[in-house]
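Example 3.2
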Amino acid sequence: MQKALASLGRVLHAFQKERGATVLFLASKGRYFSDKLSQRFMDTDYAIEEISSQAPNWIERGLIDSSSGDKLSTLFENISSITENRHSILNMQMDTTSSVGTYSHKIIGPIIDIMVDLALSDSKNDSSCVSAYANFLHLKERIGRERALGARGLVLGAFGNPEFLENYQFLISEQKSYHETFLSLANDAQKRCYDRHMDDYAIVRLEEMHGELESNRVAEGSYDITPTEWYDLTTQKIDLMHTVELELIETLAGSEAEGNSEEEHDNADAIDSLVIEQRHKDFIRTLSIFKGLENNVLDGLLRSATIKQYNKGNLLFLQGEQPNRLYIILNGWVKVYKGNESGDETILQMLTSGDMVLESAVFLNAPYPLNAQVSKKAMILSLPAPIIREQVKNNNSLALNVLNGMSLHSQVLIQDVESIRLKSTTERVGWFFLRLLIEQGRVTNRVELPYDKSLIASYLDMKPETFSRTLKKFRAKGFDITKDEVILPNVNSLCGFCDPDTGSVCTRHGTTDCPNPDCIPGDLSSY
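Structure, written as tokens:
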């Protein structure tokens, strides 16, 4: 039963995502998500294939009674017509209202009904726990509808429309009702599932936005956020809710499951909460901001710190937000970018292990000037902004470390801008590969690409097609370029792209192994 619920939950989640993306695409007449919608369709199809292959087994094992079996058959009939609906969507032959109605009432609603029926049909499950689970599913669906409705309102500027606003506020009131009912029915294990995940930035920010709307503090009748930022923010919250949803399945048996899940939750806490252990502290001490600090000072700071794992796509903050935490990347990648209303992005920095994320805003207590989003799964240490600011005032060593770090980041940003803006496309790509080779320093003729090629192109201020053409030039020179790595024809292949700033951090520079001691660009005419 648990596996069946998990499979149905995955297809439910996929259709909720597809609905949100479709609304954004249709409302904007294709300006948003034209390049991502096909991927959403594929993700949903994978989930559909999973339940299609498993459903006969559910019926054979008696997991589904005749009533639920009829519902499942009707659901598959509705799903089978999705191809025709998608064709109408891509050709702009369907409006947003019809699209939302099709997804919500013909597919998503029936999936939730089947999931609740399936949970209730298992005699081992506790009815109160199942009721809490059902209310959580409906809560998640109302937030999914908010994602779609909010995206449409932002694209069309409808937040100033009284009728639209009434519908939106009613949706928020439904969320509150389902949330309160869930908490009143949930047992301790279920509440722990919820509390463990639902304290993310996205949850806090959306609650703040609801408060702004209720108190009529929304500027010019709409949220100060672009449609794509809205989609990312709400998706981040719904993805977290999907994690909770899957964990709630294990609690449906009530007290017996609660006892069993206690041990599981303890293990999960070690992963999710990532208590700061000695292995973390040993690495944290090597970070420039903490170097030379006395043990009691560092321990005092870390008592108020948290370490969390962030998945690709998670937002740390949006432009204009007031900083409440200082983020320091332990591993992974975070992009710092500027977005516009049409969904275009300009990536200004790609940050990784040891980097602070827009720390100047934290120490100046000023709104963030840019957005920050995880581009590759990351482990991030964060400290409350008021505490770190107070410690900087009282500790000279920490203040000097912060000043040195901010100065270094400013210098690196200037160097990056110069390297990217003043070089030809071939020089940019060669310089980027060379810098990665030096930073990684593990294999002398292989470069690991740390994030998607589309992000690399954006960071290098190039269009994807220009980046692809440039990569062909490198392949013609003997470079073996795959999705995740670049293998050099020989160890000196990139040395012609060196410049003084890059050479200063290269361990071979100034030695007899350096083929370009003066850091003079080589002859690139053949590229």
